[in-house]
Design brief:
By secondary structure, this protein is mainly beta. It has no helices and 11 strands.
């Protein structure tokens, strides 16, 4: 079975930094697109950042200039470097992997989530 496992969450003060990691296992192909989503209590899950195997990157406006997404295609691992963290960044962060397969339905995988809390 394909599994995505996140790590790196925790408690940090405003202005601090965290680095999230997500590694996929049980899959032999390079995942087309990997990214990070987050969900705060009482709110819908939102896309934070995505990166394709070719290096195309997209960020939600609220994190531009503060967060950096990167990946290692050979390891099917995606990272999220979060700097200048704000209390509104507090959420459970979920790793996502998705792609297309010729002649088959697209696939999507989710990690279990890691808590990020930004508080003084």
């Amino acid at each position: 079975q394909v599994q995505l496992v996140e790590s790196g969450g925790g408690l940090v003060q405003p202005g601090g930094s965290l680095r999230l990691s997500c590694a996929a296992s049980g899959i032999i192909v390079v995942i087309d697109a990997m990214g990070w989503y987050r969900q705060a209590p009482g709110k819908q899950r939102e896309l934070v950042a995505t990166i394709t195997s070719g290096g195309s990157i997209n960020y939600v406006d609220s994190v531009k200039g503060r967060f950096t997404i990167s990946r290692d295609n050979a390891k099917n691992t995606v990272y999220l470097q979060m700097n200048s963290l704000k209390p509104e960044d507090t959420a459970v962060y979920y790793c996502n992997g998705a792609g297309f397969r010729a002649g088959r339905k697209p696939y999507e995988y989710w990690g279990q989530g890691t808590q990020v809390t930004v508080s003084s």
